[in-house]
Write a structure and sequence with these properties.
alpha/beta; Serine Threonine Protein Phosphatase 5, Tetratricopeptide repeat; Rossmann fold; seven-stranded parallel β-sheet; six-stranded parallel β-sheet; 21 helices; globular; disordered N terminus
């Protein structure tokens, strides 16, 4: 499934933002067939086999299994004949139709894909994909949110195929219209050209007063803007679209995510999406890159997206903005444009910090509260020991070495790609200095993260007595921070204030976090639609992070809502906050807990942080002001570069 950058993640983000699923997905999925995510393990056995007829269909099953495997390996064309053969031998097996339809979509045969999904529905009925939001625990059963949801995979596939057919038509229409407008504009400039002007196409933007053509390339949809990176990209897009023509291309991790396009269609000139996972096998060749792309980069290699971007070359974009280093691989398609890279994090630094938190490192593995990253990602009990202590230590050391090697490879890729852009932006001076330290002389702007202060009124929560930890909960730094809070800090708080409650809220909490709610003093809320509704019942925000990069929008969000905040130094790094003024900064469990208790007992301090925090975000971190200034500077820099041509 999708791993966002800073990310992606929705940043960067974040878009290597850590393990987990995308917003809205269940905690546990029980499929009546193999999972649609080709990046995960094949589901060819187990529950899938329960749907297979008892007749002798071994040949059909062989072709289906081979076709599914080829499709998941990104070889849709090779998968098609095997899936067709499987259907011919066993026309009652729905998953063969499903994967055949997706394979046909990879080959851009929309009509055949639509017919395949429709035939599958007629021949087999619905595929019920049961998504069970229930986690089985040793001590009982814990339920979160809705118990069951059912989805029809064939219907979702059909809707996606029909969407792609319409999207391709929109893309063709847009390119043709922009081509005609460009030709008309060139003829108009020819008539008004000065006698001493040799080339009419050298008329500057100042003379024509035309809106620029800008392309935004993102690793996942910018809508809904409910996660940090998605929020940043959404407000960037809104600001640019006010004065220019803006086209947006994004990757999606599941076919049903195409529905986000409908919400954006009326606000932007063109919005396109491509299902990730159809990586071109040639991308593995180091010959295509100055530095061989790490696996975290290859994950965002998409033939469909590259094809769409190739078609968009006819627009001759003035500016191409790329969010996250993961999307830099597509910049070779736009050599004439003014190219901008927006780094939500220094992704290699984030990866290195995550590696340092991996157990097995001296001074780390002895901490009983330290969750293992692999256990967290898979939702296993981090304290359960399935091997000898020696074997576990060796495994931890090996995994840490693997993570550190991946971080070094990503750093090498960043260093090779950063100079290829005309402009780079970071969210903090810390990230800018790190980038320029590795690549001296590159123009890099700090465009800080922000918050929509107009849409975030102060909460009327003076009587609340609940602590809040919120964020994207399948993002490793947030998982680690929540576990650190629950296991190392809250016991110290409860020793003094046993009635205080902790609320952990955010997108896609893994079972390891959901399990914390077995303690009646902790509640875990998955995928809240509006965080303000949750925060209304809370009076202090906790940011107990020990890993991360960039800056934390969650802190700006809390300050905007008037929630006094206690944060680690790393949690608030890069933000213009002061200890004792806008928030309290503490790092070790004892001092962190003491700060929470101090806020609990000092109403004057609570009110001071509340008012000072809100004032800070209004003055320095309002999205509208941030991107209004960015848009003006970007246009000026583009014009300067254009005049130098």
């Amino acid at each position: 499934m999708f791993h966002g950058p800073g990310a992606l993640g929705r940043g960067g983000g974040a878009l290597g933002q850590g393990a987990g699923t995308r917003a809205g997905e269940p905690l546990v999925s029980l499929h009546a067939g193999p999972p649609a995510d080709r990046s995960g393990p094949s589901g060819s056995g187990g529950s899938c086999g329960q749907l297979c007829p008892s007749q002798d269909d071994s040949v059909s099953w062989f072709h289906y299994g081979l076709g599914e495997a080829l499709f998941k390996a990104g070889q849709g064309a090779a998968a098609i004949p095997h899936l067709e053969r499987a259907i011919a031998l066993n026309p009652g097996f729905p998953w063969a139709y499903y994967y055949l339809g997706l394979a046909l979509l990879e080959e851009n045969d929309h009509g055949a894909a639509i017919a395949t999904f429709q035939t599958g529905q007629i021949k087999t009925g619905q595929i019920k994909t049961v998504q069970l939001k229930t986690v089985q625990l040793k001590t009982g059963q814990l339920k979160t949110g809705q118990t069951f949801t059912e989805g029809d995979s064939l219907q979702n596939g059909l809707a996606y195929a029909q969407f792609l057919q319409q999207q391709d038509q929109r893309l063709r229409d847009y390119c043709q219209a922009r081509d005609r407008e460009r030709e008309g504009s060139a003829r108009h400039r020819q008539k008004q050209v000065n006698p001493d002007q040799a080339n009419p196409d050298q008329t500057t933007p100042n003379q024509t007063h035309q809106r620029l053509d800008i392309l935004l390339i993102t690793p996942y949809p910018i809508y809904p803007p409910q996660q940090g990176a998605a929020t940043r990209m959404f407000h960037q897009a809104k600001a640019l679209a006010k004065h220019h023509r803006l086209a947006i291309t994004s990757l999606i991790s599941a076919p049903e995510e195409h529905r986000s396009v409908a919400d954006l269609a009326d606000h932007f000139d063109l919005v396109l999406v491509a299902l990730m996972g159809d990586m071109d096998p040639a991308v593995n060749s180091a010959a295509d890159f100055a530095v061989a792309p790490p696996s975290s980069i290859q994950k965002y290699s998409s033939r469909r997206l590259r094809k769409m971007l190739t078609q968009l070359q006819v627009v001759n974009f003035d500016i191409v903005c790329c969010d996250f280093i993961y999307m830099a691989q597509y910049m070779d398609l736009f050599p004439q444009a003014y190219r901008v890279l927006g780094e939500h994090n220094i992704e290699s630094a984030l990866s290195q910090r995550m590696a340092l938190l991996q157990p097995g490192r001296s001074g780390q593995s002895e901490q009983p509260e330290q969750p293992k990253r692999d256990a967290i990602a898979e939702g296993h009990d981090a304290t359960e020991n399935h091997a000898t202590e020696h074997d576990a230590t060796e495994h931890d050391a090996t995994e840490q070495q693997t993570m550190q090697r991946a971080a070094r490879e990503l750093a090498a890729y960043e260093t090779a790609q950063w100079p290829l852009f005309d402009l780079r932006t970071t969210v903090s001076t810390l990230d800018r200095d790190q980038l320029q330290g590795r690549c001296p002389g590159l123009e890099t702007w700090v465009v800080p993260n922000g918050i929509d202060t107009q849409a975030k009124p102060l909460l009327a929560n003076h009587q609340a007595r609940k602590l809040l930890f919120f964020g994207t909960l399948n993002y490793f730094p947030n998982i680690d921070g929540a576990m650190f809070l629950a296991q190392s800090i809250m016991p110290l708080i409860w020793a003094v204030e046993p009635d205080l409650r902790l609320c952990i809220a955010g997108a896609n909490p893994p079972p390891s976090l959901v399990a914390l709610a077995l303690d009646p003093r902790i509640e875990v809320l998955a995928n809240p639609a509006v965080m303000e509704d949750i925060a209304q019942d809370c009076h202090i925000s906790l940011v107990s992070l020990r890993a991360g990069s960039g800056t934390r929008i969650k802190i700006l969000h809390a300050l905007a809502m008037g929630l006094p905040t206690v944060s680690t130094t790393l949690g608030c790094e890069g933000l213009a906050v002061r200890d004792g003024e806008e928030l309290l900064i503490r790092d070790d469990p004892a001092s962190f807990a003491a700060a929470v208790l101090e806020l609990e007992g000092d109403r004057a301090l609570w009110q001071h942080l509340r008012s000072q925090g809100r004032a800070l975000v209004e003055q320095q971190y309002d999205w509208q002001n941030i991107y209004a200034d960015y848009g003006k500077r970007l246009l000026e820099r583009y014009r300067e570069r254009w005049e130098q041509r």
